[in-house]
Amino acid sequence: MTTQQQKPYVIGLDLGGTNSVFGIVDQRGDIKATTAIKTQGYDKVEDYVAASVDALQIIIDQVGGIETIKAMGIGAPNGNYYNGTIEFAPNLAWAHDGIVPLAQLFSDKLGIPVALTNDANAAAIGEMTYGVARGMKNFIMITLGTGVGSGIVVNGQLLYGHDGFAGELGHVIMRRENGRPCGCGRTGCLEAYCSATGVARTAREFLANRQDPSLLRELDPEKITSLDVSIAAGKGDALAKEIYEFTGHMLGEACADFAAFSSPEAFIFFGGMAKAGDLIMDPIKKSYDEHVLKIFKGKAQFLISSLDGASAAVLGASAIGWEI
Amino acid sequence: MTTQQQKPYVIGLDLGGTNSVFGIVDQRGDIKATTAIKTQGYDKVEDYVAASVDALQIIIDQVGGIETIKAMGIGAPNGNYYNGTIEFAPNLAWAHDGIVPLAQLFSDKLGIPVALTNDANAAAIGEMTYGVARGMKNFIMITLGTGVGSGIVVNGQLLYGHDGFAGELGHVIMRRENGRPCGCGRTGCLEAYCSATGVARTAREFLANRQDPSLLRELDPEKITSLDVSIAAGKGDALAKEIYEFTGHMLGEACADFAAFSSPEAFIFFGGMAKAGDLIMDPIKKSYDEHVLKIFKGKAQFLISSLDGASAAVLGASAIGWEI
User: Which of A167, A264, A293 comes nearest B171 by C-beta?
Assistant: First the structure.
């Protein structure tokens, strides 16, 4: 049996609302083996963990057994790093009305240490361990997906705050009057504008309030997605480009406020929307320069995650395993 | 000569635009001796340091000589902790157009380590060392004075960020449209509303736009100060109370956003305006509860600095000396 120091692998679990994807990862971020199960379909968390461990056992054997594995990291919605729990996660049948000690349950079954955090924090640690943030001590990861998430790194450490829930930057208020309703029950949050669903809503508003032609008018407004907007903008559609400018402008304003908080050396964007590249990054940078306090001007980099892709979330989750 | 470990005192320097106040402080926060010089009136920083050391020498001798002193801490406007410099401080004749290595200059003259940070960070460290934040690992200090400053503590450490200038929460944007001009050259900053000068401006606006009687109408509007508003409110003046409600409401909204960032266990208010007590704290707490994300509700304390008073800034500056 190898000693603790020599164990070459960690397990990463990207726990999503639909799928749970597992990977066994080495220190360079190479994924050696993967497997997956459906996240739903279990009434009790114990059943979910049992099914997970059954699936995991096969890939654990592939890499040489549990003795080769240092630890496991989990990225999960509403994950609390301090106590390894998932708390009141609205989209998880077995965790929507309580506090579930998921890390402990996996640790008991596997006999290795298990840590857990929310998906955006996992992405930030993944970027620091394997991606463009290697060597950075102060940066902010912003995940642009169905929602807007964030992971804040300060002095080389994830910022968890007093209760483990720090870094909810999708829920700073960007419109204090007549703000859009947000899923959190309040109005005017960054997420209500700059998530994929926010961008789709912006598209519907632009189409309803304006008369100029657009490729987007060929689509059913209720079914427009941020991907449709991206495709139309890629074809040079002026209205679609303006939607990205509107979105990037607000993200730039938000980042200017974030700079006043933790003065990061970089803002790193992750997730589907970040794939739009310059279309979204150019307006973010322009707006940031216009809005940021003079003392911070020109200091921060704006980067797109180098982990983006199907395996990024698993890598992010696995990276927590090295930190235990 | 005593050893490094046994040296019982640190020097604190509260470097203000008008006066420079020095104190020699023991580990319990008792100020053993103080002196002061004018901050201005020196063309060159070397002259300022020489005058400071002349004044200091007397009180250093009083406590038993330089051998009894571990280090010196300086709280100064535009102070950069990382390199011990004051950078482009608009109100300091000998530092307004350059980078001044003040910590090094004092260290060379005194022969002890010297650290420097901005005034709000010094207040936060002071609170953590001697005040109500003793034992806290995550809190935000908000200084309400001529401006609005902040010191953010995360995992028991001051948040300095990549460049040493993190924690400029007076300059997050609270009004993105038709915001008041701020001293920083932008519009709508928290400081433009919630500093002492912001409160005086709110008073002038309320008096100009409304007809209801108020004790404040007896004063020259151009000369109204936040202290006048506090006195009138203390006498039960309805309009003056509304000015505090307006100010506290905005501070509560701002703190709700700050919670989404670092999820602190407490917000601690420091400075002249905080002396208004419940008059300002009650509307802050009420507004915070109305605006904060559900997950943070009811978790943070709202406290007034226990160091407030004439010696608070010197104590805060001295506290950095223990950290070296």
Answer: A293
